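Input record (Table S2, row 237):
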Amino acid sequence: MINPASFFNVSYGLYIITSGNKKSRNGFIANSVFQVTATPPQFAVCCNKENYTAGIIKETGVFIISALDKNVSSKFIGNFGYKTGSKLDKLKDVEHFTGKSGAPVITENIISYIECKVNQTVDAGTHLIFIGNVIQADILNNKKPLTYDYYRDVKKGIAPKNAPTFIDKKTLDAIKQQKADKTPLPRFKCPVCGYIYEPEKGDASSGIIPGTAFENLPDDWKCPVCETPKNDFFKLK
Ligand code: FE
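Output record (fe (iii) ion complex):
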């Protein structure tokens, strides 16, 4: 079987990938970024073939990976993530400077950048993987990077359709359900006094530590309120 819930446990960061020259420039949001080798330092980025920036990277042979600040606004991400640069200049109102390669290096809501010169392009079907040598890299401040997990769980961000990690809504809901199903241990109720045994709390009066499943309680365990035996308890749905 292929359970897409396991794809969710692969960790990523969230980046803006820019490319360009004097004629054209653009940037988009990506999470599929990784370091390929240390000597020499090489990085890779995965990009949808229909992405406007992919065309610019192919043409100019450069890309810049910029790590987003954890506290960046959803609006700022939206400017780069859900619009196409073919019709507007996404960098028009965004602070940036021109990098060594001529491509724009964003400085707003960014904590560090890595500028790369493409040395290889891998065709991965719907996507292209650009691999490049680092030609310039620096940190801009000491803020924390935005992780994909934080973006998804706290900022409630979702991957757009052309992201390599895109998952449709139906599958996404199924994954959430699976996680919910795996989380709580069942609770049991005393039929006499109504006391509810909650595994996450345990039972301090009998030395039962939090996280103990009802099934794992000692056979002689009794209701801490009315002393009804364990076997008389019933499971709550
Ligand atoms: Fe009881």
